[in-house]
Structure formats: structure tokens, C-alpha cells
Amino acid sequence: MIRPVTYYEAICDKCGVSAHEGGDISAWGDAELALEDAEGCDWVTPGSAPPGPLTTAGRHYCPECAATEEEAGV
Length: 74
Ligand SMILES: [Zn+2]
Known about the structure:
Elements: H1 31-40, H2 63-72
This protein binds zinc ion.
């Protein structure tokens, strides 16, 4: 039989890019793992100072968007 399963991946709240675009693994079986992976790729929660650990509840920005956000002083 076939059944659908749910996987998780971090998506940038600003540009919509996935934390693992082009990588071998694009999704995780657990939201925490997806966050850990994104964190390892320098993803951040915008507005947190100092940058704290990512949380499932927060927004997530890829390194590129995090950099432009800093420049904009938001
Ligand atoms: Zn982005």
C-alpha cells in the first residue's frame, strides 16, 4: 500500500527559499531536526538579539535575507 507521510523543512519567511535547496536532503521527519539543520546553515530568527536558537514558532530567515534585514536596520 501507499500512504503519504509528513516531512519538515525550513523555509525563509522572506524569500521562500528552502534551507536545503540543492542539497541531498531536502526534508526532515521532525521539525526540530529541520530547525537544527537551518541553524547549522546560519539561518536566524529575525529580530532576535543576540541571535538565539530557532524555534518552530518564530519566523526564519535565510542568511541572505538576514543580512539585508540588518542593513535595513529593522
Ligand atoms: Zn531568504
